[in-house]
Amino acid sequence: MLLVGEGDDLEPPDSFLKKKPKSDVLNLVGDYRFLTVGYFVSLHAEENGCKVFPQTKDALDIYRAAVFIERLKKSGIKVPEFKIIYKPEPETCVLAPMNPFSKNSVKIVKNDYQYIKAFKKIGIGKYPVVQLKADKVEEVKIFLNKADKTEFDWLARAIFKEFGVPLGKVLIADDYKPFYFMPIEKKEIRLDLIFEELKNENRLFC
Amino acid sequence: MRIGCFVESYNFKFKEEAEALQIFVKTAKKMGHELELVGKEILRKMDKYDSIFIRATTDPLLTAFVVSRLAEEMGKNVIDDSESIRICSDKISLHYKFQKNEIPTPKTILFFGDYENLEDYAEQLGYPVVVKKPNSRFSLYVEKANNYEELLSITKKFMRKCRAVLLQEYIPTNFDWRIGVLRNKLLYACKYVMAKGAWKIHDIVNGRRVYCDVKAVKVDNLSLKLKNVALKAAKSVGDGLYGIDIKEVNGKFYVIEVNDNPSIGHGWEDRKNPELYEEILIALTET
Ligand SMILES: Nc1ncnc2c1ncn2[C@@H]1O[C@H](COP(=O)(O)OP(=O)(O)O)[C@@H](O)[C@H]1O
Ligand SMILES: [Mg+2]
Fold first, then answer.
1. Is the pLDDT confidence value at A202 over 80?
2. Which of A88, A130, B209, B273 could be A65's S-S partner, Cβ–Cβ 3.0 to 4.6 Å?
3. Do B43 and A66 lie within an 8 Å CB cutoff?
4. How much is the CA Rg of chain A, to the nearest whole Å?
5. B7, B39 Cβ separation under 8 angstroms
């Protein structure tokens, strides 16, 4: 298994992209969004016939809130009820972007004024938005099958199993219900946790 | 069957495209189906439809991709399927597919930012070098560099927001073939004839935006060689609905790209093969 990413003992993306890989690839770049380096690493592996985590199609799905929630639900994970909104339907709720542009991020809104403002900002005036009920939102970082908060290891495992995505941040609504996935920053990546888990490689990648 | 056709306001900008959409509606009715033109609200009422036809711009970053994916998750027949969208929206992906399937293309080099090699790449291709951003469409991010200085500046500009570009040998022609393919069968054909002074089908000449002329050609009249190149290129992506851009020079064919979601305008693409509406509706309603 070839590990690609930034850091000691990892193959840097730039040199990886120039080679013809032959082995399985674990892509540890941390951001796999369309047309980013992380995306191209997975694409390069895939198109050279290598098994790779994550695959490009999963890398596209995971960052699109509605698709992320639907797939988790299908795989048996409890997720919040949500609506896809294209016209404002103000209420106390959480709004999440469905387009991956700009610096829009998830917002908890408490009144109509906040709602309208957040709706416009998150949808950039033209994209649908995901709307759900939640009193609080918690962030969890995942590293392969482990989470930074151990009570969420099950979620890291579920996400790796369903999407093959080893790194990222998950937003969780009340009652342990995940609804949104984001890339993790380089400095937040815990390679030590990853290396420890890789000792059990056989169980991880079957 | 009920078909939901996802459209956005710009689909009605050209009367030819708006008319084509109406022909889809009418033809569906004649065939005993119902095709409804729907905006973003389609995401809320996907249940209503048996299949989904996307006419709005497809790109993994746009709403159309979510429409395609959610429809697929619900087990519906979808054109365009999400894999076709993913591959065709990224010229790097397309390039890998072309290479693997031995599709004839202009000489192409993927550039991932190794500037120390850039001059060498240009020499291999010869000037002018065509530079493309992976997600270009409507010729928006396709430019020509006449020398190293221009190449450097275009490449840097494109790479500000993206980690890869495509460098390509320049193959000038007066027109691009545009061959429509559906489910591995030829659907329609035309020539997209460049405007005077233009080298791309959408170009800017003397500060003015110019479009190509569309000259339809009956599919039956295409050369066997061209037909085969188009079919092979389509197949390297999938079995959906595609428009293949091909250049012809002295009887040799070079595939420029495979487009998912190809434009269909009444009096343009449909002129010599008007049965294309019915063919697409058959593909959408077959089980
Ligand atoms: N290698 C090339 N040589 C000459 N002209 C080209 C070349 N590649 C593209 N073009 C012209 O530029 C246009 C846009 O290129 P294309 O690769 O199709 O990008 P887009 O997806 O933006 O349409 C083409 O329709 C063609 O007319
Ligand atoms: Mg094109």
1. no
2. A130
3. yes
4. 18
5. yes
Domains of chain B, start order: 2-80 (3.40.50.2300), 107-169 (3.30.1490.20), 172-275 (3.30.470.20)
Q: At what angle do helices B63-73 and A65-74 cross, to 10 degrees?
A: 10
ipTM: 0.94
- Does A64 touch chain B if contact means CB atoms closer than 8 Å? yes
B26: tokens are 């009418």
What is the length of chain B?
287
Tell me the per-residue pLDDT of B244-254, one tens digit each, with 9 for 90 and over.
Answer: 999 999 999 99
Task: State residue B126 phi and psi, 5-degree precision.
Answer: 85, 145
Cα radius of gyration (chain B): 19
pLDDT, one tens digit per residue, over B34-83 is 999 999 999 999 999 999 999 999 999 999 999 999 999 999 999 999 99
* Tokens, residue A40: 């191209």
Rounded distance, CA B149 to CA A160, Å? Answer: 45
Query: Does pTM top 0.90 for this prediction?
Result: yes
Chain B contacts to A (CB-CB under 8 A): 39-41, 43-44, 60-63, 65-66, 69-70, 73, 82-83, 86, 89-90, 92-93, 96-97, 100, 112-114, 134-135, 162-164
Cα separation, B127 vs B181, whole angstroms: 33
pLDDT tens digits for range A4-40: 999 888 999 999 999 999 999 999 999 999 999 999 9
Q: Are A30 and A183 in contact (CB under 8 A)?
A: yes
Tokens 């990886």, residue located: A16
* Closest of B181, B140, B145, B210 to residue B269, by C-alpha: B181
Structural tokens at position B218: 């009956």
Q: Which amino acid is at B186?
A: L
- CA–CA gap between residue A104 and residue A121 (Å, rounded): 7
Give the whole-angstrom CA distance, residue B276 versus residue B287. Answer: 19
